[in-house]
Amino acid sequence: MKKFFVSLLVFVSFFSLAANGQDSIQIKAPSIAFKAGVFNFKKTPITDNATESVGLFGIQYFKGYTPHLDLMLNLDFTSLKYPFYTSSKIGIAKTNEMYTALDASLNYKLGTDLNKIVPYLSAGIGVASIKNSYYTAYAPVGVGLQIKARQGSFINILSTYRAEVSSFTKTHYNHSISYSFPLKLRDKKPVMIPPAPVVSDDDNDGVVGSDDECPNIKGVAKYKGCPIPDSDNDGVNDEMDKCPTIEGLAKYKGCPIPDTDNDGVNDEMDKCPTVKGLSRYQGCPIPDTDKDGINDEEDKCPTTPGIMSNFGCADVQPQLNEISNHLKFESGKVKLSKKGIQALDSLVAILVSTPHIHIDVNGHTDNTGTLKINTRLSMQRAMVVVNYLVKKGVDKQRLNEKGFAATMPIADNKTSKGRAQNRRVNIIINN
């Protein structure tokens, strides 16, 4: 028996030495497990009174040597009537006796500890003690299933056939389940980083040697040791510049001063930044002082509301019509009446207040007389009015005289009253 224990010690020691050189990646860390199971002995006629099946408890130790090969130590305890042999007879324990078994096995895994479920084959050698008086030896072989519970911890389900080796051994089965956990998680081997070679970095920008395209100017690695470029030279680098190709200002993130209304006047100079205008009005539209819808540049009367047809001035044609009503003449005559002179004085005042107005002075006659005579007479009546206005200071360039004879009557020439209405001068705005 001493030889057996010596052999077992040599077996374990030899394998430990042989496996020390294996790579530790994916190799099981030293682990301990608590197990429960059952012994099952083969029944014989001689051992009818012996125990056939009995529960057990025990402790397991695991240590990985390769990703696929683990060492497993089992220590089992139970109490039973063990059938054993002596030199002269076959005997059976009369009472339950303490049974202790210790074995060492190699587990060959059909996967690694990275897999969730791994089947494995197990084989080894072991020794058992009965009543601390008798010793037996056996060889366990079996199959197992390793189930990953958490990192480093596993559930092991194992069934072994324990073949007899010594004369006292009874062949039996051992079925068990255990839960293992690492005594200490295996640390990964540190990666040795060789020291960096000594290289020059004159500008202290972290880009060294020949990799630095601007060795004397501090820059950044992404631009090969050169500063961040500023394509438009506006003092805002391209990474911060929203307009990298157009010179701008830092306050506008490298863009020019904005022109929100696109009127050519930037917002800082534009008094109306959201309304399109003109530079001469500081970015605002042309003003309309009198709010008549006609801007001051087109309004001849910018401070007085007017109409478009009269260049922004009030419509004076009704007044001119009233004046024309007093410019009547006697048959064949060209002399202005007293009311006519008063009316022309009113016309002078209107023309002075509206210097932009040009007027037509149209002379007319009734149908008395020939066309030739009436044409000359109508022109003379128009000239009488024009000459009076010029005498009163009205620019002749603003006056356009015409004679229409009797071609444009406003009343019936068959009556004296109608003819009197037709002998007239009409004042009409002509712009």
Q: Quick gist of this model?
A:
The chain is 16% helix and 29% strand. It has five helices and 13 strands.
Tell me the CATH topology of the largest domain: Porin
Low-confidence stretches: 1-24, 85-90
- How would you classify the helix and strand content by structural class? alpha+beta
CATH class of the largest domain: Mainly Beta
| Domain tally | 3
Helix-strand string: HEEEEEEEEEEHHEHEHE
Beta content: 25-35%
**How many helices in DSSP terms?**
5
Overall geometry: rod-shaped
Numbering strands along the chain, what is their spatial order in the largest sheet?
1-2-3-6-7-8-9-10
Rounded average pLDDT: 84
Q: State the end-to-end CA separation.
A: 141 Å
What order do the helices and strands come in, and which of them pair?
Elements: H1 2-19, E1 31-41, E2 53-66, E3 69-80, E4 83-85, E5 90-92, E6 97-109, E7 117-130, E8 134-150, E9 153-164, E10 172-182, H2 317-324, H3 338-353, E11 359-363, H4 371-391, E12 399-403, H5 416-422, E13 425-429
Parallel strand pairs: 11-12
Antiparallel strand pairs: 1-2, 1-10, 2-3, 3-6, 4-5, 6-7, 7-8, 8-9, 9-10, 11-13
